[in-house]
Hints:
Elements: H1 3-21, H2 28-50, H3 61-70, H4 72-107, H5 109-123, H6 127-138, H7 142-165, H8 170-178, H9 183-218, H10 227-236, H11 240-268
Helix pairs in contact: 1-2, 3-11, 4-5, 4-7, 4-9, 4-10, 4-11, 5-7, 6-7, 7-9, 9-11, 10-11
Amino acid sequence: xxxxxxxxxxxxxxxxxxxxxxxxxxxxxxxxxxxxxxxxxxxxxxxxxxxxxxxxxxxxxxxxxxxxxxxxxxxxxxxxxxxxxxxxxxxxxxxxxxxxxxxxxxxxxxxxxxxxxxxxxxxxxxxxxxxxxxxxxxxxxxxxxxxxxxxxxxxxxxxxxxxxxxxxxxxxxxxxxxxxxxxxxxxxxxxxxxxxxxxxxxxxxxxxxxxxxxxxxxxxxxxxxxxxxxxxxxxxxxxxxxxxxxxxxxxxxxxxxxxxxxxxxxxxxxxxxxxxxxx
Length: 279
C-alpha cells in the first residue's frame, strides 16, 4: 500500500464520476454520490494503513463495519431508546404544540408581540445548560430527552409557521372576505397551503435539532441505553469502533428522517416554484 495506490483510487473515482455525470439517465443523481461515498471509504481505509494511524485516533471503515455488525442488538436498543422514544416523541409533541400555538398567535396581536420575542430568547439558550435541568425535572428516562427535544424544536417551528401564515397578500385575504369565508375556511383554503413551504422548512430544521437534543441530553443522565450514553461510555473504554458505530446509526437515522420530511414536502408542495419543472 503506497501513495501511488491512493492517487490511483482517487483518479479512478474522479474519472468514473465524470463519466456518470455525462449520462442523461434518471439513476445518475443517485449513482454519483454513491460512487463518491465509496471512494471516500476506500481512501480512508488505505490512508489509515498507509500512514499507520492508530485506531484510537481514527479506526478504518472495515473495523467500524465489523463493530457495527457485531453489536446490532445493542445498537438497535440504543436506536429505540434515543430515536424512537426520545427524539421522535419530542419532535411530534414540540412541532404539534408549536403549530397550535402559531394558530393562536395568528389570532392574537398580544401573543404575537409577547411570545415571538421570547422565542428568540429561548432559542438562544445553550442546550448544555438546559439539558441537565430538564433531566433533573423529568428523570433519567426517555421523558427528559423528549422534554429537551420539545424545547429545541418548539420555537423554530413556531416562528416558521407564523411567518408562513402571514405569507398571503392583503388582496387575497380581501377576496376570501368577499366570498364570506370564515376564518377556518380562509385558513384551510388559502393561508395553510401558502404556509406549507414555511411549515416544512420548520419541520426539516427541527428534524436535525431533535436528534442533536436527544443525544446531547443522554450525556447528562440516562439508563444504560441510548446513542449518547453509548458514545460517552465507549469513549471512556477506548472502544472507538463502537463509538463510530453509534455515530453511524445517528447519521443514518438523521438522514432518513430528514429525507422522509423532504419527500413529504415534495409531495405536498409540488405546486411551489422550487419544485416546478421536476427540480
